[in-house]
Amino acid sequence: MNKSNKALIGGIAVGLAGLAIARYVRDCNSGNKAEEIWTTANIPDLTGKVIVVTGANSGIGYEAAREMARKGARTILACRSLDKARVALEQIQSEIAGAQVEIMGLDLASQQSIRRFAYEFTSRYDRLDILVNNAGIMWTPYSKTEDGFESQFGTNHLGHFALTGLLINHLLKTPGSRVVNVSSIGHRNGIMDFDNLMFEGGNGYSRHGAYSRSKLANLLFTDELERRCRAINADAIAVAAHPGGSNTNLSRHVENLWFVRILRPLLEWMTQSPAMGALPTLRAAVDPAVRGGQYYGPGGFMEMTGYPILVQSNAASHNLADARQLWSVSEELTGVTFEVFDERTNKYQGVTR
Length: 353
Ligand SMILES: NC(=O)c1ccc[n+]([C@@H]2O[C@H](COP(=O)([O-])OP(=O)(O)OC[C@H]3O[C@@H](n4cnc5c(N)ncnc54)[C@H](OP(=O)(O)O)[C@@H]3O)[C@@H](O)[C@H]2O)c1
Hints:
Elements: H1 3-28, E1 50-54, H2 59-70, E2 74-79, H3 82-95, E3 101-105, H4 111-124, E4 130-133, H5 151-173, E5 177-182, H6 207-231, E6 236-241, H7 258-270, H8 274-277, H9 279-286, E7 295-298, E8 308-311, H10 320-334, H11 339-348
Parallel strand pairs: 1-2, 1-4, 2-3, 4-5, 5-6, 6-7
Antiparallel strand pairs: 7-8
Helix pairs in contact: 1-7, 4-5, 5-6, 5-10, 6-10
Bound molecules: NADP nicotinamide-adenine-dinucleotide phosphate.
């Protein structure tokens, strides 16, 4: 067994012990106080809103997209596999009569695909109320995206960074718009190392290290985007959410490892359904009480399960210098610049270009 697998087993063992305790405590105590029970019944009418959910064919994204469609939103399922997207679309349409749902191709591991999606979307729609940056991969072996980015960082962070940048003008012209970035409890293990941001050549790579870094990046990006929105007095906010532990397809890249196969039933027992896991994302996306920069997660023990409440991410996720550096590195790597922020900031300061 190599060093990376040993570390992964260790990480999973510690995680499972935590989960078992969490489950035990949850079963003894419902987790949330009565006034904290926020469910899909709290979702307001979304008629007239245009919403994009990335990775909407599966897990959290599917659940969130379906519930927003149920409330009348025109919901775009942005998926890398159109076949899978079609299945999701048909499921939603069979469940919700008249649902305004459509599918569009989006591969976040391809800057070309992201640009194609943004072009198609902005040609067809003149507003974007909610962008849910949900899609993600976890614990993949070392690999690179089409553009040479380490896959987890490239997909989970850089893909969404570029997508948001290409859609920012639509977001800014839509009253009360939101960007929701889906992070993870795993951000707490993330370390930003700008000297080896993408584990060049596999150097220092570990599956969980790269995943945690990408999820920390989701939060740094949220903070910096929110700061920039405030700097130009935008009527748009950036928020974050995490689903706790939810039984989805996310663990597919470690599914074949022997210890994961053995632990699978235990994992299913200890985590919550995708429908519950989607509630923090939904709350961040639609609750009128949500404010820019906030982070929502399950209210139960260790934020693993339960109904969504306002939670706190760690200090590293609010590191201003890291957020700024990540922003400029992400602009350089993707070639997507959020020019509107510089232009409008300069205008407010009376600077003419
Ligand atoms: N489940 C949990 O316990 C948990 C915990 C913490 C955080 N999260 C976060 O929740 C989010 C959703 O994950 P999930 O649990 O719902 O997992 P999931 O069921 O595996 O869904 C992930 C979605 O992302 C899509 N995706 C992956 N790579 C993509 C790419 N290159 N371009 C476009 N879409 C891509 C997948 O498409 P395919 O179906 O085609 O692969 C799928 O639709 C992720 O950001 C994850 O990090 C989940």
